[in-house]
Sequence to fold (991 residues):
Amino acid sequence: MNWKRASLAGLVAVPVIVLFAYGLTRDPRDIPSPLPGHEAPPFALQVFAPGQPPLARAIGDTVRLAAMRGEVVVLNFWASWCLECQTEHATLSNVAQQYVGKPVHFVGVLYNDDPKSGTDWIAKMGGQAYPATIDPHARTAISYGLYGVPETFFLDRAGQVAYKVTGPVSAATLTRVIDSLIVAVPQVAR
Amino acid sequence: MTGLLAHDALLVSFVVIFFGLIAVPVAVRTGRRDWMMLAYSAVYTNFLLVTVAVGSMLYALVTHDFSVSYVAQVGSRATPLFYTVISLWGALEGSILFWAWVLGIYAAASVWVNRRREGNLIPYAVVVLLLISLFFAILLVGPADPFKAVFPVLPDGPGPNPLLQNHILMAVHPPLLYLGYVGYSVPFAFAIGGVLSRDIERDDWIRLARRWTLIAWAFHSAAIIAGMWWSYEVLGWGGYWAWDPVENASFMPWLVATAFLHSVIVQERRGMLRLWNLNLIVGTFVLTILGTFLTRSGIISSVHAFTTGTIGYYFLAFIAVVLFGSLMVVAGNSDRLRTTGRYDAVASRETVFLLNNLFLTAFMFTVLIGTLFPLAAEAARGVKVSVGVPFFNRMTLPMIVSLLFLMGVGPALPWKSSTRAEIKDKLLVPAIGAFVLLVVALAAGMRSVYGSLAFAFVGYAAMANLREYWIGMRARRAAHGEGWGTALVRLINGNRRRYGGYVAHLGIFLVALGIAGSQSFRTEREATLKPGETMILDGRTIKLKELWGRQEPQRAVIGATFDITINGKSRGTAEPRMNFYPTSQTPIPTPDVKSSILGDLYFNLQSIREDGSAATIKVIHEPLVPWIWFGGLVVVCGALIAMFPGGRVRETLTADLPR
Amino acid sequence: MNQRSWVAICFAMALLVAAPLGAQSVADSILEARTTAVAAELRCPVCQGLSIQDSPSELSQEMRGMVRDQLRAGKTPAEVKAFFVSKYGEWILLTPTAQGFNLLLYILPFVLLLAGAVVIIVVVRRWTHTAEPVSLPPTDSP
Fold:
């Protein structure tokens, strides 16, 4: 056995093992969105489920990003066939009610689903505080780089995407992010 | 109850493995045969104990014993018995148990067959096999324990992953893959055993390694084809290969094993490439472990990746041990593996074998680099990137067509050296084949460069191969006065290794034509139809007859019936379906494939309008796809022919016998 | 006027006559081919591994529609891809852009292939030039 040569050959394995060890600390499913820090893609979404007063909007109304300038927007993508959406549903409704009167808008966006199933689902879940909208051909979903549901985007008062949550969102995250965004004064005041 | 029995069996197997690991050095030191036999029986006993564990698991699955964690995870009373049985390998823990069992079979069989062999090669190989078994035993009582007790016991379970209970090929592909993958442990053990026991200077270890590699390779080839077939029949996109990390993981060791099966011939005949061959065997095994690591650790996202816990760290440790260990053993002993043969001419079959190995290993490295690059990019740049089909196609197609070309040149060139005229004749005549197939392809509308090259080179290589049969048969007829059929059988029988190899080549040609044809001539159309409406694809009129639905115990099924007519003549019906499983958010498609010798018509139901008034259907016309499956069968037949020993010896014997 | 020009004019006239019938479908099939080419380079976000061209998922179908619309509106394939990268990140491209660190991915396989070829040339040279075979052990050679 030539030990010198053997150990030299052994060294070849080191970078490979290190790369794998690094890989084990990463989650391949966690793909960072390039949107935060950039201007939020505009949208105009039609309401199909009105929500509850005081946050209610009439069915058929169009929710426009442009109309919510200067205020915080929480954009939640969901579907009736999505299991994880059930776990965050009550949280979202509760937090939305908590912030009534504050400069925050909650908008639900139905993804890859039909409004009838969406309405039934909301009724089954015991109602929803804020309005839900439809997104024909998933155009808004794609422009927000959606991977699946649920995903929640937080838009700041300057109209930029501030933060994105993949998977069910918690009350703690919601309040923490919304509070920080309400405090932050729009830098581009027009 | 069954869980406890299996647990005990696995714990006892620990003791047995450790006993075997102690018995070998004692036997080698003292030279005592009886200790050697004890060490061997440790291998057999380990196999029996894992068999008890597998039997218990099957019993637990079939009796729906939801107190066993694995059954609670994949079992369900509604699942048909057949899919319940095959769910044995449908999830992580079960697949590790199955792996351990296949390893047990291979270890016991390889030791049993060679138990009377002199020298220390087998004892050292036993150590290697027991160490690999030890790793899987650790997994089975640790992070991949399938026999954990569940409390409280639930009355029913979720059933297997819907994708895995949707097609019968799920009963075929995984066992074949394990029989292939795990089989490479045996030549690896012989190789390391050969080096450690210093038997490697004699070349007989390479014969053992070749035999067992060929067995594993036959299963592995069949598994890859079955896997392609499965994804074609189940996933609904009309393709069979997506360069998914899991596909790559199974393909890489196949490439290296294929390289070994070729270069081993050079070592046997010419005494060259000994160190290289050792590296190929070790590389094949390392790549199987690497592939398992990639798919079981969740390190790379992939369609088939299992969800995981800590098992990735165990595999990482194992890879580290295997990599360091074998690199050091091979490099440390490389002095004893120098070439003893001699090279006569550049234009010889030896050179073609070298080039074959060059392209096969470069191919493997390309796939490896492409598979691991996202990881490297994230480490270096902190950005997630993808490496997918377009990259792999672009990079590997030149290598694939080069290999096809070499398959024509190799059999034509003689060993050692040859005269210029001989070479000219051997190399030029097959050009007729190239010309014919190229014309056929162009006439059929081929427009892609690589597709045309693939057709031409397959024509070239097939002609060169068939010519070898022709020459051999003609010689036999002249010498023995045999009929054509007898001459062919005796020719193959006379040198099974060589002609088995040529048969495998013919299979590869069929696969290559199937892939080139279906990629280049593929046409597809997507349309939303109401019942009674029609669409047209490549002269075929496809009419939606009706939409229907039914409830089955474990799922709900929605289907569509289509009538196919060509020139007004009815060509049967197609019934693609969508299956809704309670555990799956999205429906699992069951495409319908209408096959003929010239190609497939592939129907996939993309979606059905909520009110049931219309369906969106994708129809793909894919010429030559069935050739891939048939070609795979021919490859395996070739491997089987080459596997059985004795051809050459018998030929010389029978030749001397009076007839 | 030479013969070639006549042919060209006849051809152009034929096209003009056929235009109302065929132009639409020709333009459609060109657009479809361009859509397919771009869609084959974009990764389906919900299936991971397949392109949006191959994937039967609904999101992929919608994304294909978006590719088609953008191409029809006059965007170049590169611009369409850049649009998706701005939404999904580089992950969406099935072939990483050939620049910077990514170049390694394209160069390394060829470097290895060339290195292997050089090794083969050197080794074959050495072997063919060795007049005497290095000590042949008796057990060797079949």
User: Anything to note?
Assistant: The CA atoms of residues 41 and 144 of chain A lie 7 Å apart. The mean pLDDT of chain A is 90.
